[in-house]
Amino acid sequence: MGKLLPVIIAIVGLLAGAGAGYFLRPAQEPEVLAEGEAGAVDASEVDKKAASKASGDKADAERDYVKLNNQFVIPVVRGGRVASLVVMSLSIEVTTGSTELVFKNEPKLRDVFLQVMFDHANAGGFDGAFTETGTMTMLRRALLEAASQVIGSRAHDILITDIVRQDA
Fold first, then answer.
1. CA distance linking residue 63 with residue 79, whole number of Å
2. DSSP string of 87-102, one letter each residue
3. Is 125 exposed, middle or buried (0-12, 13-18, 19+ CB in 10 A)?
4. pTM score, two decimals?
């Protein structure tokens, strides 16, 4: 009986997994039947769904990503001494055609981004597990707000492409 128990547990687990997979499978797409057939789905409804999905993809495609030329170096100060350095690379998601505007305003953008990052460092944002989702979301939100002050509503998101902390 002791040798049979692992086999029984494996079979029960296999059956439970298969049952869960069957009941949790994704919903099937409705079939478009010929006109007049019972249960036919209106083809225009399917076309509308496809068009809305395509327009969502188009809205995403109407964005440019502008990588800022140089990295940002942020000192983390504790007790009047530099305890570590954080090095970050950023990109800005902007409306298509706004790339030139970003490069034209890059000195101002770098200034406001550095101020936000210094404030984040002084508030302890780069201490401990500084890459936690909540901490990074707060930083991105603050950076996006700063970018919006410089280039307006053309800024849609901030992408942190590289981040490193070097402890002293």
1. 43
2. EEEEEEEEETT-HHHH
3. buried
4. 0.63
